[in-house]
Design brief:
Largest sheet: 5 strands, parallel
Number of strands: 7
Strand content: 5-15%
Structural class: alpha/beta
Radius of gyration: 21 Å
Number of helices: 9
Shape: globular
Length: 227
């Protein structure tokens, strides 16, 4: 009888230990923010697999993912829109979670925003200097705001050429992004050279990446994620 009780207790301990081990590393709360590049928008105007999805898959395969929130990323979202969403503490109904809660909980945040906004702007005319400067100010305001809620790992994607954005404009913006990323202890992910590889794009008249391009971005982020 005593042996039976002992075996029952031992099995219970082993089961508890197994469950603990399986859940011990599931501590990464992953939040993606951004526009079409963050949602995986494709050249055919449908959302596909984004770099965020590849990162999620990796974290799941390593049994490290607790939660993945992607609902605050929206195609054509502007930086100003995202700032307003944060300041007004927008509620993501499907997750029953506000953006400020998501920011506070997250151990990893990826930010891919600005490409839709600037590309669309470049179609109308040469982008005025004031628009570029306002864009830079908005980016810094956004990052400062996010840092008010989160002191963990944040990844900021740089931009690559799209439509009529000039080299000068691109260099000026990416230089600023690198500078403020350093200022707010954010990891800058350089994407500028993606445009040089036609294998990363499905159509010549669309700046949206294909799955290979998104996989490349995920690899660049994952290369730093355990540092």
């Amino acid at each position: 009888m005593k042996k039976k009780i002992f075996l029952i207790i031992l099995v219970g301990i082993l089961i508890t230990f197994y469950i603990y081990q399986q859940n011990e590393n599931k501590n990464i709360y992953f939040l993606s923010l951004g526009d079409g590049i963050a949602t995986g928008m494709t050249a055919y105007n449908v959302e596909g697999y984004s770099y965020n999805d590849y990162i999620r898959d990796y974290l799941e395969s390593e049994h490290k993912l607790e939660k993945y929130i992607s609902g605050f990323s929206k195609t054509d979202q502007t930086i100003e829109n995202l700032i307003t969403t944060i300041e007004n503490n927008y509620l993501l109904e499907e997750a029953n979670l506000t953006i400020q809660q998501a920011l506070s909980k997250s151990s990893i945040i990826t930010i891919g925003i600005g490409l839709d906004e600037l590309a669309n702007m470049s179609l109308k005319a040469n982008i005025p200097t004031k628009e570029i400067e306002d864009y830079k100010k908005d980016i810094e305001h956004m990052l400062k705001l996010i840092r008010n809620f989160n002191d963990k790992k944040i990844y900021l994607l740089g931009l690559y050429k799209a439509y009529n954005i000039t080299d000068e404009e691109l260099n000026s913006i990416n230089s600023h992004l690198k500078s403020i990323a350093t200022k707010y202890h954010i990891i800058y992910i350089d994407t500028e050279n993606l445009i040089e590889n036609p294998q990363f794009f499905l159509l010549n008249n669309s700046y949206y990446l294909n799955y290979k391009g998104h996989k490349e971005i995920s690899n660049r982020i994952l290369a730093t994620i355990n540092n």
